[in-house]
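User: Need the bound-state model for protoporphyrin IX containing FE:
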Amino acid sequence: MLESINLEKGLIALFVVVVSAIFVSKLKSKKLKLPPGPFALPIFGDWLQVGDDLNHRNLTDLAKKYGEIFLLKMGQRNLVVVSSPEYAKEVLHTQGVEFGSRTRNVVFDIFTGKGQDMVFTVYGEHWRKMRRIMTVPFFTNKVVQQYRFAWEDEISRAVEDVKNRPEASTTGIVIRRRLQLMMYNIMYRMMFDRRFESEEDPLFLKLKALNGERSRLAQSFEYNYGDFIPILRPFLRGYLKICKEVKEMRLSLFKDYFINERKKLASTKGSSSLGEKCAIDHILDALDKGEINEDNVLYIVENINVAAIETTLWSMEWGLAEIVNHPDIQQKIRKELDTVLGPGVEITEPDTTRLPYLQAVVKETLRLHMAIPLLVPHMNLNQAKLGGYDIPAESKILVNAWWLANNPEWWNKPEEFIPERFLEDEQKIEANGNDFRFLPFGVGRRSCPGIILALPILALSLGRLVQNFDLSPPPGHSKVDVSEKGGQFSLHILNHSVVVAKPRV
Ligand code: HEM
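Assistant: Bound-state model below.
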């Protein structure tokens, strides 16, 4: 009896909450002119209708239904999706300050110490300082010139290792595994003047596993419900506990094995005898000057581990898969290399600018398989206007950059891999955002500063692979699988391809 009264009371309370929520949301939406979108239920909003998997393709389907700007109410969160070059320009350029912040969520709060990093912090003083401090050690042409020989060395070593694997030229191997070690070595030489000897190096294995786990946890759609509907957050306790553990282990690893080691080396040998400064030396200088704290140093290392290594590796893997699947394109790259550099002359960093076809292959890879197809979510701290609509404060703004680069309205046969498209246009489309239909690195204040490293590293790696090997699918297959797997804002290949790499004599 008592139980049924309680149940009744509970249902009445729920009814009152629902009716009030409808009333309040009606009142609010009367005042604001919100972008179009599906009908929103109280409490849940559009969540039950659109689901968790808000990947670039699903958002493209919704754009076809609701337009170039639409609003999804995901529980308490407002999500605005823009899908035209004009709106992308407005968000990233014209109103770049208004929309230049980043959203936070329960999981990213753990991995970034509530925005103590640079990638996921709001637009403001802290971001400006972090971006300035990271620019000198990572994002200048001087850095490219300092490290290009290290990059070329790492790529040569990867090529040699593949040549030394007899099965590479018969049944094929997952070249990506060796390229992953190469990318870690490229970035760890720049960061700490350190490298890992082999794919079995225990420290490399530990680092790779923890970074992989961090990406999986952060990119999963599994935790969205706790973010959308805060009263459900207690159900995320187990998930968040794992996030915290992974975060602690990762940061300790960065600190104990890399940052402290470098500090020790500098104090025993004297920093002047260490040769040219690596990135962490510059960052520790900023720490000594009191510009940033110990945690900020750790989060800079964390950011580079996710933002630099994986994105570039995914793009390399897609590029390799497309080259394998298109022998004619492979032949054209080789021909250009032979003609411009001379037969047998290995490509080096300065050559990358005089190889338009190879550059077109890199751009086409980034167009068709955009590593971050929705960019890193933007956010407006204050209420704003976009296309005549009111955008509530703290909305998550997604720019569907993948759709901008794959919309048949302005791309001919967008689903096909055709590097030539980048050679045909009169006004050359670059990857730096000179055209709002192609934004693989974003554009404007929050655009990717790593473009200065990523483009030459991609061209060098793919160029060297094509120079040194005939690349083909494994026996019995006419193509390698290029199916994709999307995350919150990442896109990678579903299956790592087995590739046959026959050394060219
Ligand atoms: C092919 C490789 C890469 C791709 C496709 C890529 C793409 C992107 C994109 C789309 C953004 C977000 C732009 C926005 O929100 O408007 C971004 C941000 C960022 N990327 Fe990259 N990136 C790559 C490589 C790198 C590398 C090599 C580094 C560092 C060495 C790097 C560091 C960063 C940082 C620090 C940010 C945050 C910028 C900010 O919030 O102010 N990225 N990247």
